[in-house]
Amino acid sequence: MSQAPIEKHESSEEKGDRLANYLTMVGHLCTDINQGALTAVLPFLVASNGYSYTAATMLIFASNVASAVIQPLFGWMGDHKARPWFMALGTFLAGLGMCGIGFLTDYRLVVASAMVSGIGAAMFHPEGGRIANLAAGSSKASGMSIFAVGGNMGFFVGPILTSAFLTAFGMHGTLVFLVPAIVCSIVLLAFNQRFKALGVAHQSSGVAGHTQEHWGHFGLLMGVLSIRSILSYGLLAFIPLFLMGVLGQNAALSSLVISAFAIAGGVATLVSGRVSGSVGTHRLIVGCITATVVLTAIFSLNRSFWP
Q1: What is the pLDDT of residue 26?
Q2: Close Cβ partners of 13 (under 8 Å, ≥ 6 residues apart)
């Protein structure tokens, strides 16, 4: 007597929620548009408002400090209770802060506006990443890649919007950043209950009890990431100013270069996943850091826009 084949059924947790996954990607895009735009707006602030390089780059510093200080709090809150509305509010604040930079005249208020944008980004990312992880089901790598692509696209789109609208309308062109922020916030709020239904991830006690923590390795990794972030944000802040002040390019073109920077980063992110499987993660990290140092030195010594 033949035995009927056993059918395997995936649980809802294994299947995940693909729509929710893509919604977090869209939210990531609409949030990081403002982070990409913040660096791209610096040449316009120097040209229109007469800011010094120190005053202009202080906006990047203020935004990142505000984001870094408060983001762990939002992550801790998300681990204890699902708060998907953090995504909607975070996206809105990121766009509101970016918009305010073009309308405020007092420098202190401009810095405060940049900080509001940073706090909005800090509010979105932990909750967005948490929900993307849950929505991915068993396909964690694929789901988190979808979420990450949204951020890369945001860094690409932000400078384009900055260049187009600030060239056409002056500093008041930053009003454009309220549009995706408001629309995306409304959409995310509309799906709030769907996000909430995904719950909160809990690690089983059996796994947690046999997991050894490696704080030394964690500290080394955090050190490398910190150095990488310093270099990355330094390039994002000063590439447009370098192109305008040293290479004589206009503010619009100098801002658009950030989009090229974002495209290269996005392609590298997609390629690195496959390359690491071939050469190993450690070798890939060392190779990328070495290449970054060498290429940054070459860039800084260059005195021609077209090499």
Answers
A1: 94
A2: 137, 138
Rounded-to-integer distance, Cα 23 and Cα 29, Å: 10
Residue 124's nearest CA partner among 190, 200, 67, 59 is: 67
Q: Are 22 and 146 in contact (CB under 8 A)?
A: yes
The CATH architecture that domain 16-198+223-301 belongs to is: Up-down Bundle (1.20)
CA distance 157 to 133: 24
- Give Rg (Cα) of the chain: 21
Three-class DSSP labels, 170-226:
HHHHHHHHHHHHHHHHHHHHHCHHHHHHCCCCCCCHHHHHCCCCCHHHHHHHHHHHH
Q: Are 122 and 148 in contact (CB under 8 A)?
A: no
pLDDT per position as a tens digit, 214-262:
777 778 877 877 777 777 777 777 778 888 877 788 878 877 787 877 7
pLDDT of residue 302: 76
Alpha carbons 156 and 159: distance in angstroms, whole number? 6
pLDDT in tens, 132-186: 888 887 777 677 778 888 888 898 899 899 989 999 999 999 999 999 999 999 9
